[in-house]
């Protein structure tokens, strides 16, 4: 199985901050990486796929980059609606695997 | 627009069997893939397995192989996740998701509680 490791596990930030979350794969996954946002009590929502392609309807303050084994999700200016948990997921091979999640909290 | 409608919450006792469902609409059911994702209380997301709705070809995560069965009935556009003997550790939210790679559509989840 490909292991996905996110850092940090928790991030405290203020509205307007630039936020970066890192996701590392245990082996190369090319660009086959997605990012999701999950709010408490809700199903996750797709933000980005193929490492950097923004899903339709997702605000442009979200961006993704990387390839191979290292990836980042950046929120350019954190908004109140962005406080949530974020997960990366690889789809290079089976079984699909998720990172452990990064919780973005209000500072 | 793709919609995945999951069956309602379940409360079961250890050792009981269970089958939960996920009905798809809004796209070509028979040319699509449905996966199941587990989220235990307060924990992260775990991919359990996937089924191709056209011919019921199924792939399981090794972590869940032999623990659950994924099936589908294309005549009613529905995928299933079932257990033959539940354990307390099966208590979780279970999401059905659309897609074979990344998941662009999610059901609301089915909460399964296993308690004596």
Structure in words:
The complex is a heterodimer of chains A (107) and B (116). With 107 residues, chain A is an all-beta fold. Chain A contains no helices and 11 strands. In chain A, strands 2, 4, 5, 6, 9, 10 and 11 form a 7-stranded mixed beta sheet that branches. In chain A, strands 1-3-8-7 form a 4-stranded antiparallel beta sheet, with no helix packed on it. With 116 residues, chain B is mainly β. In chain B, 0% of the residues lie in helices and 51% in strands. Chain B is built from no helices and 11 strands. Chain B has strands spanning 3-6, 10-12, 18-25, 33-39, 45-52, 57-60, 69-73, 78-83, 92-98, 105-106, 110-114. In chain B, the strands form 2 sheets. In chain B, strands 2, 4, 5, 6, 9, 10 and 11 form a 7-stranded mixed beta sheet that branches. A 4-stranded antiparallel beta sheet of chain B has the order 1-3-8-7, with no helix packed on it. In chain B, strand 7 and strand 8 (78-83) form a beta hairpin. Chain B is globular and about 40 Å long. The termini of chain B are far apart. At the A-B interface, strand 4, strand 5 and strand 10 of A face strand 5 of B.
SSE arrangement:
The complex is a heterodimer of chains A (107) and B (116).
Chain A: E1 4-7, E2 10-13, E3 19-25, E4 33-38, E5 45-49, E6 53-54, E7 62-67, E8 70-75, E9 85-90, E10 97-98, E11 102-106
Parallel strand pairs in A: 2-11
Antiparallel strand pairs in A: 1-3, 3-8, 4-5, 4-9, 5-6, 7-8, 9-10, 9-11
Chain B: E1 3-6, E2 10-12, E3 18-25, E4 33-39, E5 45-52, E6 57-60, E7 69-73, E8 78-83, E9 92-98, E10 105-106, E11 110-114
Parallel strand pairs in B: 2-11
Antiparallel strand pairs in B: 1-3, 3-8, 4-5, 4-9, 5-6, 7-8, 9-10, 9-11
């Amino acid at each position: 199985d490909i292991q996905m490791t996110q850092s940090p596990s928790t991030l405290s930030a203020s509205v307007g901050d630039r936020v970066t979350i890192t996701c590392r794969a245990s082996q190369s996954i090319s660009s086959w990486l997605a990012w999701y946002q999950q709010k408490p009590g809700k199903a996750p929502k797709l933000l980005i796929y193929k490492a950097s392609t923004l899903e339709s309807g997702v605000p442009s303050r979200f961006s993704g980059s990387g390839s191979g084994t290292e990836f980042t999700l950046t929120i350019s200016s954190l908004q109140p609606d962005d406080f949530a948990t974020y997960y990366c997921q690889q789809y290079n091979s089976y079984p699909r695997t998720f990172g452990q999640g990064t919780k973005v909290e209000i500072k | 627009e793709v919609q995945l409608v999951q069956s309602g919450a379940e409360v079961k006792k250890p050792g009981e069997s269970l089958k939960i469902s996920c009905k798809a609409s809004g796209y070509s059911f028979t040319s699509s893939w449905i996966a199941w994702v587990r989220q235990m209380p307060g924990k992260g997301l775990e991919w359990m397995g996937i089924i191709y709705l056209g011919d019921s070809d199924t792939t399981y995560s090794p972590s869940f192989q032999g623990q659950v069965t994924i099936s589908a009935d294309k005549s009613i556009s529905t995928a299933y996740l079932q257990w033959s003997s539940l354990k307390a550790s099966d208590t979780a939210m279970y999401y059905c998701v659309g897609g074979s790679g990344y998941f662009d559509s999610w059901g609301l989840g089915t909460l399964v509680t296993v308690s004596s």
